[in-house]
Amino acid sequence: MSPTPTRRPLKVYAFDPSLGRMLGNHLTLNVRYEPLSPGPIGSRFAVIDYDGNTKSYYAPVNLDETGVLLNDGLEPSESDPRFHQQMVYAVASETLERFEIALGRRIGWRHGLRNAKLNLHPHAMLEANAFYSREAHGILFGYFRAGDEPDGNVLPGQTIFTCLSHDIIAHEVTHAVIDGIRQHFTEPTNVDVAAFHEAFADLAALFRHFSHQEALIETLQRTGGLLYGQSLVAEATSVGSTSGAIGAGLSADNPLVNLARQFGQVTGHGAGLRSALDKPANATDIKTKTEPHARGAILVAAMFDAYFTTYIRRTADLFRVYRAGGGGRDAADLPGPLAALLADRASKTAEMFFQICARALDYCPPVDITFGDFLRAVITADVDLYPIDPHNVRDAIMQAFRRRGIVPQGAKYFSEEALQWPTAPGDLPEVKGLVFGDPNGLTKAEKDINGDILRNYAKANGEKLGFDMTRGKVAVPSFHPMFRLGEDGVLRIDMVVEMIQTTKECFDAHNPKLGTFNIRSGVTLMIANQPIEDDQRGEPRIRFMIAKHHSLDRLASQRSAYAFGAYMTDHRIDFSLVHGA
Hints:
The structure is a single chain. The protein is α+β, with helices and mostly antiparallel strands. It contains 15 helices and 21 strands. It has helices at 66-70, 81-103, 166-181, 191-211, 217-222, 261-266, 285-288, 292-324, 336-360, 371-385, 393-403, 416-419, 444-461, 552-564, 575-580; strands spanning 7-13, 26-32, 45-47, 50-51, 56-57, 118-126, 130-133, 138-145, 159-161, 231-232, 252-253, 258-259, 274-275, 475-485, 491-506, 516-528, 532-533, 536-537, 541-548, 568-569, 572-573. Strands 3, 6, 7, 8 and 9 form a 5-stranded mixed sheet that branches. The chain has a 4-stranded antiparallel sheet with strand order 14-15-16-19, with helices on one face.
């Protein structure tokens, strides 16, 4: 009997079709193997190819067909709907897998049905848009006609498919992941919330660029190893030449630092929809920019500032060896072996930063997220798992955020120790009887046991957790076990728990007829499974209590945010409006 394979290789575009085969654009992703029904339909995703414009279905691809399997999937094609189906499945699967590896657990989708799938619609609408929708239980990808004189590497009137952009797929899946982990992050209770959703999704998509070594090699050689360069040196000219008599003499934009390159070009945004490098750091933009993408770009630029700084530090020794052997400082065509070594370090550094960002989600307060909260979560999560920071990654992150004016509320100093969330108060009782399950999740019976334990704990200890119990009961909307290896090789087992208290407030205290809205207080609890000592296991204890409770400032901020009312439907972020803006 043949063994069941563990991986399924599938071909995709690393960026989008406009680059052809250049710069490693034809990429093979090795996703987790699972038997697939035509669609493809697996355990986590269902590709449903209904064309909302023509009111018809496209024939579904069968990725388990022998010829397709032997060829690592279908060849990249702009015109074949079956490849479109393959690509959304492959990129979505890889994105989800990287999140689950970082978080140390299986991630569920928000619509909450057991073993539910996220629906992927490659040709949902004739529109220059793509968005995650709770109501559709999935992601809707649009397609549209380019202009007669498009600004990009496309034909006049060519059809552009958002489902063929690696960036857009990863971005939208990340929205679904965040919503599955933090359901109240779709409530824009302050100016940072929608911007955080967009920035985090951009970060996930952009870091996937730098995680694939095949897409790095040529770019490294054409930037002299400086991955953050906005443009690539022409293949047939020396550095600084402006000659363009032949195609090889033209410089090109760097696809690694641009998000949704083709989409951005044909819709008039320039080289890409957005960039990892917005502009030189300043501390004033955070005070003036409110549009979600513009504000989110500040957070993206801060994190990529730290990434590129870390990349430079981690490759400095390779460049020193190269120069000692006669290599020039401004070389635009690095030797192949050096480019391969640089690609390896750039890829591993990108994966590290992706995991740093992903793990921070579990250390955020469950409501009313701000950029400062995220910074504190990043630092706390990284120190918690890796106390030693040999490459000064955390310092690079802190300084990049500081230069952009992102300051956490309540921190007395801008230092690693001061930015970490404080540990839980010592007088919090143990959480007796909590069941941690295994990395595959909890059974229904285990969930029922934990739900009762945690609700009773909140009721008995609400005041100690910071809740005003006169404002109503405390709900427990989610709890997730997480399994991670620390730097000492010891398995760490924790339970991440959300506790939420919801009350009604009037839009105008002097005129109740104007209606009410929900304001939420909440805590994120990090509860540790205890080791065995003297043949006895201690009861689980709370290590962190990350709170965001009711206050007059929060009430005023939320009233203002809801009064503004942009990009919202029923007081939730409407991603179709955000992405269509």
